[in-house]
Amino acid sequence: QVQLVESGGGLVQAGGSLRLSCVASGRTISGYNMGWFRQAPGKEREFVSGIKWSGGITEYADSVKGRFTISRDNAKNTVILQMTSLKPEDTAVYYCATVLRNFLMFVPRTPGQYQYWGQGTQVTVSS
């Protein structure tokens, strides 16, 4: 069974930075696309960023493009989301997710396309 554990969330002032980590167990992340989503209170879970198994393709939501960077370290079975220039509207629970099938040729952008999820880590940005 694939398990994903997020860490790195916290409280930060607007303009600050946070680095989220997602460590996988039960299966290597090598060969599998990975994604980050977030969910604010009263809102639907939304795509933030994703990275292809090869690492060569990354995708971002328009709202975070230019501020967030996703990366992966297959040797450490870890995916990183580096967040800079944080805004109050970035406040949410952030979830790491991965897919069931390996070697997908595209980066999924909807929650239903991901089969494994972490428990989430809270990010709060104060104004």
Please summarize what this structure is.
The chain is mainly β and 127 residues long.
- What is the helix fraction of residues, given as a range? under 10%
Radius of gyration: 13 Å
Oligomer: single chain
Q: How are helices and strands ordered from N to C?
A: EEEEEEEEEEE
Number of continuous helical runs:
0
Query: What are the segments in which pLDDT stays under 50 over at least 5 consecutive residues?
Result: none
What is the mean pLDDT?
Answer: 97
Question: What brief labels describe this structure?
Answer:
four-stranded antiparallel beta sheet; 127 residues; mainly beta; seven-stranded mixed beta sheet
Explain what this protein looks like in three dimensions:
The chain has no helices and 11 strands. The chain is mostly beta strands.
How do the strands and helices of this protein lay out in sequence?
Blueprint lengths: L2 E5 L2 E4 L4 E8 L8 E6 L6 E6 L6 E3 L7 E6 L4 E6 L8 E7 L17 E2 L3 E6 L1
Parallel strand pairs: 2-11
Antiparallel strand pairs: 1-3, 3-8, 4-5, 4-9, 5-6, 7-8, 9-10, 9-11
